[in-house]
Amino acid sequence: MLSVQLAVTLSLVVSTLATGLLPQIPSVASFSPSLDDNFQLIESVRIIVDSKVASQGSPSLLDFAKVFRNDLSTVTSTPILPVHVSNPDIQTLSLPSIFLTIDTKKSYSLFNGKPTEEGYDLVTTRNSIIITASAPIGVWWGTRTVIQQAVLAAASGSKDIFIPAGNVTDTPGWDVRGFMLDVGRHWFATDFLSELCIYASFFKINEFHLHASDNLWNPAFLYGDGNEGWKNLYAAFRFQPAQGSHNAGLVPRKNESWTQSDFRAMQTTCAQHGVALIPEIDTPGHSLVINQWKPQLMETGAPDHLNLSIPETIPTIKGIWDEFLPWFSASEVSIGADEYDANLADDYINFVNEMSSYIHQTSGKSIRIWGTNEPSDTLSVSKNITIQHWDFPGDDIPVRLMDAGYQVINSEQSFLYLDGKTSEDGQFPQELNQALIWSGAPGGTGWAPNIFSSDDASNNTSINNPNLRGSIMALWNDWGNNATTRFEIYYQLARSLAVFGEKAWAGSEVRPTALTRSQFDVAYPILNAAAPGQNLNRVVPARNNVVYDYKTVSNGQSTAIASVGPPYTMTFNVKPSARSPSQGLLFEGIDSKLHVANLTFEATGQLYPLGYVLPLDKWTKVAIHATREYTYAIIDDDPTNERYWTTLMDIWGDYMATGNISFAAPAQTFGGDAFSGTIKDVSIVLGV
């Protein structure tokens, strides 16, 4: 069902249909309309892959074509024919056809003039769509343009979907367009991370940086005299060592780590959507998880720092990378390397350079580090290492680094940092600051990867700086596992990834086709709702907003609905038996569970009790209302008996903060896990 905002903007979409390409996210570099009729997407359309180049690349052109076919079927609700591999004469294609091919003679350039394989040409006529690039990845981004045009055209309400006739030539401005998620301080299973990859790809984001090891920061536990609280402070390493591995003790929580097969499956899914996983194992700071395993390696007085002067330290770190480097298919990895002791600058620089050489010699991969200004009069970080800038004045000024010959990625926190649920003193927004992104740069032109400061133009550089690689936005989880559910993380990322995708691909007011904020605001809700290959919004079929309504149910009964995303209202009557007053599940789904005891929600491995005890052998009516910001229950239709599920977060070890929590509805199974009692009148209705 269309939102009010979406309904209001449809007229703008319809008016654009007659004039050319619909404004999409990210915008294309150029479009030249033709006088030919538009291409109609109908059931008989064929996707044809040029047989001469079908197997080229990894993923191959054929691999990308198969994903494209599935996506096109989803967004058009049309059963597209299987992908066909052929070598037809392009001028005599049978109709209607979408032809994918590679021409290595074609060349595309980034804003700095460096060549890129991510550019493509898209030629649309009444009879065909032809996507040509110099490599399979370029063709893939061309298919995203077709998919988005189909989605936007379908939003007009017409049963016929047309792609505007004309020629598109499109390239990204920068080669790194990524997002980082702190998975070291918050556990996420690979199914969710895979869906995030697929969603980000829809907006032509090409990297997913996994900050895969870290610890909560509690100064009293870490640095207090004689305090050994660091031994139990939450710290995690997410790659699960093989059975019998010399690294086995590094992962005490096996259920909060990824097996090699799970990680590789996720990595393959991301790659098939044009996204490279960039793993980060953070050392020599942020290393509490290693020191909890091997306390002899810690720096005295700083349990989260490695002591680099101990002979065993660097071989231990190399031994960790030795086991996990073969897992990773990306050409780069991150070793973190931020916020270390400036008094040990030479030790730090020697470590970073040694790890760079070792990883390259071992795997052929290069490394990245977070920007850290480690003052030394004698040593410097190798220029083979990419610096990921994040802070003024905590690291070297990025324009100076680039002038000195370093490759730099922009992750400046004032533009690009988010933090889960609660940021100390509102330091970071819940989604990227739209006003800042669209008009917060000097001159009001908006942010782009060449912009590092909103108030000092001397800290910014030109779009064509040869040492500016691009940008990565970041979402941190400083408050740990219990602060957010995984879908609250998605809600922070959803619009943020889309606006970041536009700016990281097209820049700000560089191209005449770049989106305005009003154009983005029209396109985003349509594209978010229709992004194929995932269902992070947990949209389910409903009739008149009713998902289901069961008058009677039996314990263990299952439905076809695994989970329902907010906003929703879930209502039921329950009479627990005195035989097992605090045992069992009321409801279970793929994203959450609701336990009888204290009406406790379980999500992402955490328990969130409501604190309400259901009376025994008596019927109680419970109505659960959920939005993306909160979840509350009304008991027995009494509005004065309104109770919110909350979570308690430890903020830097200084104070505790209470926050509301949002849950997807556990909609799949009724009763279970030794529940004794009766449930009836179960319904889920969309909206609160």
Automatic annotation (TrEMBL):
<comment type="similarity">
    <text>Belongs to the glycosyl hydrolase 20 family.</text>
</comment>
<dbReference type="InterPro" id="IPR017853">
    <property type="entry name" value="GH"/>
</dbReference>
<feature type="active site" description="Proton donor">
    <location>
        <position position="339"/>
    </location>
</feature>
<dbReference type="GO" id="GO:0005975">
    <property type="term" value="P:carbohydrate metabolic process"/>
</dbReference>
<dbReference type="InterPro" id="IPR029018">
    <property type="entry name" value="Hex-like_dom2"/>
</dbReference>
<dbReference type="Pfam" id="PF02838">
    <property type="entry name" value="Glyco_hydro_20b"/>
</dbReference>
<dbReference type="Pfam" id="PF00728">
    <property type="entry name" value="Glyco_hydro_20"/>
</dbReference>
<dbReference type="InterPro" id="IPR015883">
    <property type="entry name" value="Glyco_hydro_20_cat"/>
</dbReference>
<feature type="domain" description="Glycoside hydrolase family 20 catalytic">
    <location>
        <begin position="177"/>
        <end position="506"/>
    </location>
</feature>
<protein>
    <recommendedName>
        <fullName>beta-N-acetylhexosaminidase</fullName>
        <ecNumber>3.2.1.52</ecNumber>
    </recommendedName>
</protein>
<dbReference type="InterPro" id="IPR015882">
    <property type="entry name" value="HEX_bac_N"/>
</dbReference>
<dbReference type="InterPro" id="IPR025705">
    <property type="entry name" value="Beta_hexosaminidase_sua/sub"/>
</dbReference>
<feature type="signal peptide">
    <location>
        <begin position="1"/>
        <end position="18"/>
    </location>
</feature>
<dbReference type="GO" id="GO:0004563">
    <property type="term" value="F:beta-N-acetylhexosaminidase activity"/>
</dbReference>
<keyword id="KW-0378">Hydrolase</keyword>
<keyword id="KW-0326">Glycosidase</keyword>
<feature type="domain" description="Beta-hexosaminidase bacterial type N-terminal">
    <location>
        <begin position="25"/>
        <end position="170"/>
    </location>
</feature>
<keyword id="KW-0732">Signal</keyword>
<dbReference type="InterPro" id="IPR052764">
    <property type="entry name" value="GH20_Enzymes"/>
</dbReference>
